[in-house]
Predict the 3D structure of the following.
Amino acid sequence: MQEVTLSQIKKMARNSYNSLWALAKQYGRDVKLYCHWTAGHYDQLFEDYHILIKGDGRVYVSTPNFTEVKASTYMRNSGSISIGLCCAYNAIGTNNLGNEPPTEAQLNALAQVVCVLADALDLTIDLQRVMTHAEAADNLDNIYPHEAYGPDSTCERWDLYVVHEGDNAGTGGNIIRGNANWYRASGQLKNL
């Protein structure tokens, strides 16, 4: 694992651009960004994700090659980048995200990472291209590589269905995309 800056993430994404797009096109879709939580501790890093964000907002990569296929999003790993928040240990429901729920530092860093990746990969920041694992598990992008297994079906995966305890069900993705679009509109990350 290596700690990285947003500028480094942008460079890695640009270096992976052609290969990521070629892989995604094999499946008849655009490149995807999938947002997860690890269900671990704030400082616990896992190799299953391309990018990890610790509880304090520091960002790490498990590989400099974003075309490397990671086992993070069932049947959706080729032509995609997975981003994991190191949090949600012992989370048991939308009103109990465990002793280590997503921190504001993580959510802010996630919005910045999504913005930088989307800019580097020429992606619109919308549900078709940026999804939580909860949304992908239930095929909310109307792509059906698998049977639904998210919170609207069997609830096997509900990563970021909410980002704060007590949030309205299913609002996590909209909050993440909204914050990333705010960074895009502000232009703060444009010249990395």
Summary: The beta strands are 2-4, 32-37, 51-53, 59-61, 80-85, 130-132. The chain has a mean pLDDT of 94. The first helix runs from residue 6 to 26. The two ends are 22 Å apart (CA to CA).
